[in-house]
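Task: encode each sequence below as structure tokens.

Item 1
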Amino acid sequence: MGSLEAMETHSSSQARYYNEAQRIKVAQGVSGSIMDRGSVHQLVPYLVAGVQHGMQQVGTSSLAHLVQMTTTSLSRFEHRISSAQMEGDVHSLYS
């Protein structure tokens, strides 16, 4: 998958997720959260990298192209109710 460990140790994993030249690596695996991580200035680059990666997954490289794709029905958004969001989340990993 796209865990940080895989991206750091295997160059093929980096190429697969289009970020071999990026300083900031964004994992696509299971992650956790903590209460406080510091300044928002340290968090924003990770958010930007995550948005860029998501845009790569839908096949666009800019927000303008994403808007164009949605207005021409090349791409559509899906409304998900809270139970569908919970079902799509990581679950059943506890031993």
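Item 2
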Amino acid sequence: MHTVSKAVRHRAIRICLAIMLIHGWISGYSVARAELKLAGIFSDHMVLQRERPVPVWGWADKGRVVTVQFADQIITAKVNDDGTWQAILKPLAASDEARKLVAACDGETVVVADVVVGDVWHASGQSNMAMNVQAVAKHFSQAEADIAAAKLPTIRFRRIDEPQSVVPTKDIPVKAGWSVCSPNTVGGFSAAAFYFARKFQLELAVPIGIVDTSRGGTPIEPFIPRAAFKSHPTLLRELELGDQEDLLGIWKLPGGVRARDANWLPGRLFHSRLAPINRFAVRGAIWYQGESNCGDGEDPRDYRHKMRALITGWRTELGNDALPVYFVQLPGSGARAGWPYLREQQRLSMGLPHTGMAVTIDLFHEDIHPPNKFDVGK
């Protein structure tokens, strides 16, 4: 009889255990599945765009088939090799009926509740777009009354305030979600966007959704898609300097801007706030910005080219060459020397089709944030 030393036995046991662990890990890996996931813009209380195709997208294991159901439609989509999938709903009629959007795949189900169909508008810009209804109510009793009367369940808001990103991000968090307009929620909504939404909802009698990506204190550059910076020499040079994070160089550039931090750099907020939702179907966009491109030390001479880049860039990214874009011309400025120049640049931006400008010259206020957002929104 051959005897086996204790060392050899221990070595054999270790090898067997290693094989078992490896086999278990490989087996576990082979059956592990990526969780079925919808893009973060799809969450409870949302508004889907009426009367045009509606992309619905997300992630799952490659090769699987995802079924999307909404209203009377059932659409299937195969998951791509990179784990992404997209189903496109056929154009929907406006409806304030609370329905469910369901995505299902191999026993997994994701349900989005209280979904209505109407017009969705993208709202962006800097602090005058970000200024909320509660802030307006500190100046006007009318806004206080509007808050108390804001039982308007067919108006929905979605705030996106992700920090800047060097590269386009793939998704936004679901946690913030959509908010239904009520006296408890409306105080935090963009005031200009709220009065815009209320006017349209009353006139059209359809649900209105607002997706707000504004950020206070920022120039136009961070909201412009990278590809659109190639449309003008000043913009192209800004992009090159931005990639080097040369804040001083951008400021000294003729037609440049006094970039104060990374949030001011070309494309950075588009990457984090708009790129992740560029497939989301919308009716149009509203824009209220300009102050940070014509303040002390700013050079607004090429702002019209930047507006053109913003509008054409958004239209390209959103896949709609006729996307309506309405913007607010800065109000009377008093001693602010750069504002008249920028207002003229804004006027010249109306040369693009499907654009409109809200003239607010008579809404002068000593504060850089005029509290009258009633007339702006209308």
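Check on item 2: DSSP finds eleven helices and 14 strands in the chain. Residues 12-31 have pLDDT under 50 and may be disordered.
End of task.
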